[in-house]
């Protein structure tokens, strides 16, 4: 597959510290592998070798990422707000998609001085947020449909 294919999908999120959340991200990213995975936070003492995070690049903040950032956030998020409805969003094939953590919403501590180039939200009919790994699956599918 070429550089514009879905195989080049890139993901960044705070390193999940809770077992269930870590397992959920492992499940999602095993099914829809990221060509690059960035985990924000210190390198943990131990990462299971079968975890997708065993091959992640650990960064202190999103400032360390040189590619364009697309922040995925609730439309009315506490710290960051999604700007464009995902249904109308044109994906940048070189972007890194930044997600919060289910147990730790994204904050300036994660982003540092880095401003995302774009931000999107997923429209929901009820509460204005989703589990981050569920949002990632929706973004992956939308990206696949639009970029091929």
What would the keywords be for this entry?
148 residues; alpha/beta; Alpha/beta knot; seven-stranded parallel β-sheet; 18% strand
How does this model look, in words?
The termini are close together. The chain has a single domain, classed as Alpha/beta knot. A 7-stranded parallel β-sheet has the order 3-2-1-6-4-7-5, with no helix packed on it. It is 22% helix and 18% strand. It has helices at residues 19-31, 108-111, 132-147, and strands at 10-14, 36-40, 57-59, 69-72, 84-85, 96-98, 118-121. It has 148 residues and is α/β, with parallel strands linked by helices. Helix 1 runs parallel beside helix 3.
What is shown here, in short?
It contains three helices and seven strands. Helix 1 (19-31) packs parallel to helix 3 (132-147).
Our estimate of the beta-strand percent is: 15-25%
The H/E string reads: EHEEEEEHEH
According to CATH, what is the topology?
Alpha/beta knot
Query: According to CATH, what is the class?
Result: Alpha Beta
Give the count of structural domains.
1
Average predicted local confidence, pLDDT: 88
Number of E-type strands: 7
What does the overall shape look like?
A: globular
- Tell me the quaternary state: single chain
